[in-house]
Predict the 3D structure of the following.
Amino acid sequence: MQYRNMMKAVLLPAGLAMSFSAQAVGPEWGYDEQASWVSVLDDTVQGSMPFPYPYATCGLGAKQSPLNLTTQKDFSDIPRVASQNSLKFAYSKIPVNVENNGHTIKVNTPVGGDNSLSIGQDRYTLLQYHFHAPSEHQLLGRSYALEVHFVHGTQDGKMAVVGVFFKPGKYNPGLQAVLDNAPVTVGGATVQADKTLNPSDLLPAKHTEFFTYAGSLTTPPCTEGVNWYLLKKPVEASVEQINQFKAFYSGNARVPQLANGRQVILH
Ligand SMILES: [Zn+2]
C-alpha cells in the first residue's frame, strides 16, 4: 500500500495524523532498490538526529507486507474460520480527485468523507485507494495482474487495508473511470468537483470470503500495525485496461515478505 499523501494531516483522523505525520516527508525510494530501503539514509537530517534511517522497519520489522498468502491450492496450509465479523462496506460517490504520485495512481477521498468500512465494533474511514501492478500479495507464489488497496483508519489510529485482486477478463467500468482521470504527469492531480467516482465499483459483488493477517505498509516507511483484508474473489478488467494501467506503473509491487510465524486466516 501507498504511504505518501495518506499522510496529509487534513485527510486523516486525529489518531493517524498523530502517529504517522512525523514520518510524512522522507528521502526518495524506488521499487528497483527495495532490498535496500532499510538502509536509505535521510541526509536532510543534521547531526542531532539519533535515527537517520527512516525506513529501517522495512528491513528490521518482523511483520512486513505483502505476503504469499498460501502455498496450497486448497488452502490447507491456513486455518479457515467461520466469519464472525464480516466486512461491511459503506462506500458511495466521491468527487474526482486522482493523483499520480510517482509510485502509483491514487484516488483521494474528501475531507470529512463518510465512506467507511465496519468490522465488528470498529468503524474505519476510507482515506484513499491506489493500485499496484502486478499484485503485491500472492497466492501459490503467483501474482494477479493488479491489486487495489483501500486504505482506512480509525480515530484512535487503527489501520485496515482491503486488497482486491484483478484478473484479465471483462471490461471494468469502475477501473476505467479512474484511468480516464489519471494524470500522465508525475505529481499531477485531476480534481473535478462536479464529477464523481464510486469506490464500490471496484469491489466484487461477493466479499464474504477474505484472508486476514497482521502486517505493514508495503511502501517506506513500512510501518507495522496494519490489519490486512484480502478479498478472495478477484474482480476482472480487460487486458487493454490492465495495459493502460501498466503504461502508468508496471512493477510497483513490493516482493512478498517473510511470515515469521504469522498466521494468515481465511474467513
Ligand atoms: Zn498499496
User: Anything to note?
Assistant: The domain at 9-266 is CATH 3.10.200.10 (Carbonic Anhydrase II). The first helix runs from residue 14 to 20. Residues 36 and 93 are 39 Å apart (CA to CA).
